[in-house]
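Section 3.1 - Work completed
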Amino acid sequence: MRFRAVLGAAACLWAALATASADPVAIRTGWAVVPASLTPLFTAKPGLVRHLGQSYTLDLVHFAATPQQLAGFAAGEVDFASVSYSTLALAVENAGISDLRVVIDVLSDGAHGAYSNEFMVLKDGPIRTIEDLRGKAFATSGAGSSGDMAMRLLLRKHGVDDKAVTFVEVQFPNMKSMLLSGKADIITAITPFSMDGELREKARTLFTQVDALGPIELLMMAGHAPFLAKNRAAVVDFLEDYLRVQRWFMDPANHKEAVAIVANFTKRPPAFYEPWLFTATGDDYRPPDGIPDLAGVEADIKTEYEMGYVKAPLEVAPYADLSLVKEAAARLGRD
């Protein structure tokens, strides 16, 4: 009788442990803009993701832009955050976040002939050249962002001290109003905001980000190394779902439905997105395997160092763990 009781207690304990181990891992993920980020759209197409709610759950945390995500990441508010080449260097070299690991590429600017972010001025305004920006106001998404760095680099290349320009931090949805109201003389315009009809009617592109830097890793997703190690299986499931979602949205056969989903989320008409969204040349480049160009990131960070914004050049490989996304992509290859 006592033996049975011990077995029964052991069985109950094993069941409790099994249940606990099966609980989904909560992944707190930062995001700024849809459709640049696809995580807020994971459940928009029923049946598309396979592991959400099973091995992991998503706790989506909205930020104004990439630099703000990094601040949340450093403060422990999120497990995953989007970083650009510039914020990666700032995180490691300046902020000392040594456990940051890049795991997947989200967007590349100007790669393979794809869209590049635009820096726009009024068509009927006085600014015709970069030299005309002396004494003017530049609306930036945040100090240290890739757009901010591109602007400063081009200013220097054209002999304009960036201290002669006023930098005003503005959220992307408010860029157009800042330019049209005269509160800023030049703005950073990213999709979808750069495609606004009124903006394109009244403003023109002075230069693009690729003009300043060449193709760059605009957004990569990074996590804390201890979190990745502890929850590897769930993270690979998350990345598998991310790649599956991305491939579905990028498939031309799904274009109309994909556009409708984004339009519904952002409360814009589908016609706004139809000509450019998820296309090869009208949208940013999204690598189907999720592998970032780490050599390109390292080269861009060297430029950032030469501009004096980080303490030293950075060897990027130690701050990336691409084994997770490679495992996720390999699974999709077997589907």
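Second construct:
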Amino acid sequence: MPKRSSSSVFWEEGYVDQTLRPLNSLIFVLIPLAVYHLYTLRYGTELLAPRDVGRLLRYFGATADILPPLLILVVLALQHTIHRYPWRVQPTALAGMLVESVVWVVPLFSLNYFVDRFLAAGATSQPTWAARQILQALGAGIYEEFIFRLVFISLTLLIFVDLLSLRRDLSALAAVLLGAVLFSLYHLSGDQLTGTASPPWGELAFRTLAGIYLGGLYVCRGFGIAVGTHAFWNVCVAFLGK
């Protein structure tokens, strides 16, 4: 049997493959997800994404407060099972995912700077150090990536690739772009969506571009790193009062 190249081993069996496995993503988001929900049990939450996931579950008769975070964990566990990955956690992969999440935040700052400069997207405010802001930032990163990346992109690929037999690369690109637009529109108020109030075009542009960026991270680097990058960005914004 011919010996595979080191790059092939790195991709198929090494760090890159390990970070893409849903089980590692599950373990990676488990602690911040638990911390966020322990906080919300006492203080509640104003985040749209966890609220809407809960509303969807209640529509089907599932009303327990633990079900939204449990849904995220179950979906990841099912993905891991379907792909028949071994049930083994790689601590080095988890450490690398944390480092990558921090590194991948840097381009978002550059993107934000240029959008602010040319479209006046940002409105600065006084810095805030409140723990509430940090915990909300974690929750938003997890749930928004779950809705607009894990669920939306996965369902889009299921329809376009598995059912309609379309090209996977083009289908993934379409899913990332459409998901980014929906992600951006999701942050608008009802008046802004209906045209009663003028939408913040700069923020809309930045969130769309950031959605494309995070969607690309999800496709290429997996759910855990997309969540980590999104959460770290939110935390930085909370600290800077951006």
